[in-house]
Write a structure and sequence with these properties.
alpha/beta, DNA polymerase, domain 1, Beta Polymerase, domain 2, TIM Barrel, globular
């Protein structure tokens, strides 16, 4: 099961209880449980199978009552009390409440008073300009609702990068056990590192395919078999994703890997280049007439056209062919070049692990340094620290740094940018920190000009060094807030602010396109995990993928620097 599914149910229960004006402590318990489950580094089902209810109750915020609901969901796939609660509200209200930016109060109002009880009816009313005439709405709210509907449409049938990667890894692991499978490679948008994935494409080198195909369609993760053949099979996985398997001979592997990796626009261009030479290129190879003249490796495919090898992450028709023709494809940043993680949370606020546990886990990853950056007082839902508590946390970080050998532990904070652009900690306290991250956690619906001015003003605080998860988006759940990113990056350059690529698969923010623009402007990037548990430190690979898609090299990323150089970089 997916932890996020149950977290979503608990969050919806909290919202519905709030609409009923139920006990605020009960509401808060569901909110906190949802947040802790989302940040959990382990699968709830695995915890339950290993340690039963006791294991579930060891999760922060999960008591006896909530552990029983988790057990019920694991066993039956539903929570009966939630279904009963839903029935107390008008038909269609829950579906409306799931539209990003709408919220349960507005959904209840629309369903109960205005008989708008489906996304289709809502879109029709919004497009006709009827919502703006309703009490408490207006043109701006109508526009936001249309944006939310569009976001929901675009995310339908798409899966976050980490879920797709996990499913692909399970398939690859099983196929690699077969002696007939000489090489197994995930392709498609997953290989390119796109932020959301539609389906999984797996490529295998083999001369005999029967056992490979039998194994693939019989995997425990498979729900339905769509097709089974000698060279291609397709299935629907239990999580709803489609997975396609193709078997090719070794002589065609490079051409097939290139073809099935895409993107579509990139592949069209390579075919056009082939036509200019009187060749044909397909998943089977490069052909001159009926003779195959290339295609065993991807390097050979690019080499035949006089091109430098183009990494999969760059195959999006964003200038890669022009750069490859001139030998100017950069050596992209690699996960092995990351020397530390500068954004993480501990039990001091909404994290699952202690300072020491986070440090030891980071040391196991080979990091030279980390920064502990718990929330500050304005982020109340995350248990943000006030000034006194932040000072105490600094002391704890420094004490732990003396205790834990082999890794440097910096005392930082993720400080809130208030609506007026000031920070929610005093400068006297900020100067005590080794690292100040600045974030927007509130008032997401500010007009673009005001939001941009808010962020730019924060950059002028001499203690701010990094702007984190810059657009505030949550993929498929929350649209980016309105922000002039060009102006923000120009200000970052002016004031010496680094911009974060947040590695959490629901964020991947800054995006690849804006990473490339930051590089052009000379703005340094920091790739962080925003980890809330030791397991989430492993998310770094997804941020690196996004940075690679943004053409970033080692020298563009601040946390590839050794500690001494990083500390110099952190000084303004």
């Amino acid at each position: 099961m997916d932890n996020n599914e149950l977290a979503g149910i608990f969050r919806r229960i909290a919202e519905l209880l709030a609409l009923k004006a139920e006990n605020r402590f009960r509401i808060r318990a569901y909110q906190q449980a949802a947040q802790n489950i989302e940040h959990l580094g382990q699968n709830l089902e695995d915890i339950y199978k290993t340690d039963g209810l006791a294991g579930l109750q060891n999760i922060p915020g999960i008591g006896h009552d909530l552990s029983l609901k988790i057990e019920e969901y694991i066993k039956t796939g539903r929570v009966v009390s939630y279904r009963k609660l839903v029935k107390e509200f008008p038909k269609g209200m829950i579906e409306l409440a799931n539209i990003p930016g709408l919220g349960p109060k507005t959904a209840l109002l629309l369903a109960k008073k205005h008989r708008i009880d489906s996304p289709a009816k809502l879109e029709k009313a919004a497009l006709a300009g009827q919502l703006r005439t309703l009490p408490g709405f207006g043109a701006k709210k109508e526009e936001n609702i249309l944006r939310g509907l569009d976001l929901k449409k675009k995310s339908r049938g798409r899966f976050l990068l980490d879920e797709a990667a996990a499913q692909a890894a399970l398939i690859v692991a099983e196929l690699q056990k077969l002696p007939e499978a000489k090489k197994v490679l995930p392709c498609g948008s997953l290989r390119r590192g796109q932020e959301t994935i539609g389906d999984i494409d797996i490529l295998v080198i083999a001369s005999k395919s029967e056992r490979i195909m039998n194994t693939f369609v019989s995997l425990p993760a498979v729900r339905n078999i769509l097709a089974r053949g000698e060279t291609k099979s397709s299935v629907i996985l239990k999580n709803g994703m489609q997975a396609d398997l193709r078997v090719v001979p070794a002589k065609s592997f490079g051409a097939a890997a290139h073809y099935f990796t895409g993107s579509k626009a990139h592949n069209i261009h390579i075919r056009q280049l082939a036509q200019q030479k009187g060749w044909k290129v397909s998943e089977y190879g490069i052909f001159k007439g009926n003779k195959q003249i290339g295609g065993a490796t991807e390097e050979e495919v690019f080499g035949k056209f006089g091109l430098q090898y183009i990494p999969p992450e760059l195959r999006e028709m964003r200038g890669e062919f022009e750069a490859a023709a001139k030998g100017k494809i950069p050596k992209l940043v690699a996960l092995t070049e990351i020397k530390g993680d500068l954004h993480m949370h501990t039990t001091a606020t909404d994290g699952e692990n202690s300072i020491e546990e986070m440090a030891l886990a980071a040391r196991e990853l080979g990091y030279e340094y980390i920064a502990i950056t718990d929330h500050t007082q304005s982020t109340r839902i995350a248990g943000g620290l006030n000034e006194k508590e932040t000072r105490e946390n600094i002391r704890k970080v420094k004490a732990t740094a003396k205790k834990v050998k082999g890794i440097a532990i910096l005392a930082g904070a993720e400080v809130d940018i208030l609506p007026d652009g000031t920070l929610d900690l005093s400068d006297d306290l900020l100067k005590e920190l080794d690292l100040v991250l600045a974030s927007v956690h509130s008032n997401f619906k500010m007009p673009g000009e005001k939001m941009t001015a808010r962020v730019v003003k924060a950059f002028q605080n001499k203690y701010v060094r990094v702007f984190t998860h810059p657009t505030g988006r949550l993929l498929g759940e929350r649209a980016p807030y309105e922000l002039d990113l060009e102006q923000v990056l120009q200000a970052a350059k002016k004031f010496g602010i680094m911009i974060e690529v947040n590695s959490h698969p629901a964020r991947l923010d800054l995006t690849d396109v804006w990473c490339k623009r930051a590089k052009e402007l000379g703005v340094k990037i920091v790739i962080n995990t925003d980890a809330h548990s030791t397991d989430q430190l492993q998310l770094m690979k997804y941020g690196v993928l996004t940075a690679r898609r943004g053409w970033l090299a080692k020298q563009d990323v601040a946390n590839t620097l050794p500690l001494r150089q990083l500390l110099l970089e952190l000084k303004r």
